[in-house]
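#struct-pred
JK: can someone run the complex with uridine 5'-triphosphate? inputs below
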Amino acid sequence: MSSTKHSTVRTVKKAVIPAAGLGTRFLPATKAMPKEMLPIVDKPAIQYVVEEAAHAGMDDVLIITGRNKDNLINHFDSVPELEYTLQRKGDEGRLGKVHESSELAEVHFLRQGQPLGLGHAVGRARQHVGDESFAVLLGDDLIDARDPLLSRMIEVHDNEAATVVALMEVPPESIHLYGCAAVQPTEEDDVVRITALVEKPDAAEAPSNLAVIGRYVLRGEIFDIIDRLEPGRGGE
Ligand code: UTP
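RT: done, structure tokens with the ligand placed:
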């Protein structure tokens, strides 16, 4: 059955969150803790990302973990002794907050094995995801909870039967920090067709000021493509 804009059939049911990077740029904060567990206001970054996936209709989340996975696993589990103490004190507010993270979605964990890069981490999700399309969300980028970005990406995926990558306009002098997309317009104002990707180009050579950010809706075919890729810079 083909999906249309108004379809209620959920085509993308699973989210994959790679969280197995070494996080060297945040050392020493990430020496014993994954980068994704660093707190932003009152929650670890990864909780915002799981919330975003859940709000876009994905209740099955696979987190790819590296070393120091225990903090991550504990965060999405219940903590009976803590809950019991808060209950006894009648602290319903905090009890709700503690419950929240363990009730957002069905969260699964898989070890990456070796930190061989983002592509390898995504490739590890193959058995869990199967042939279906799925979303990849990186904890490096946090999206305002009011922004329907991911739902819109799924809509575009359904309408075009295409892989969808989130892009963000950045000042030209910052494009060298990002993956950059060469694009062609489409009939929709908020959608472009990507014709090429250039990793961290100099401003003078950048094909646009559109930077790749960490939200992807990928088709199952990506797994064969990842398998065929030769490792690039730094063995990743
Ligand atoms: P980064 O490129 O930011 O790498 O990864 P990193 O290792 O986390 O950080 P630095 O560069 O050492 O500071 C982008 C995303 O891919 C995940 C990271 O957890 C992050 O979400 N990743 C990266 C993996 O899951 N496995 C890897 O082998 C590498």
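RT: quick notes.
Residues 1-6 have pLDDT under 50 and may be disordered.
Residues 18-25, 35, 64, 112, 115-118, 120-121, 138-140 surround uridine 5'-triphosphate (CB under 6 Å).
JK: thanks, will look after standup
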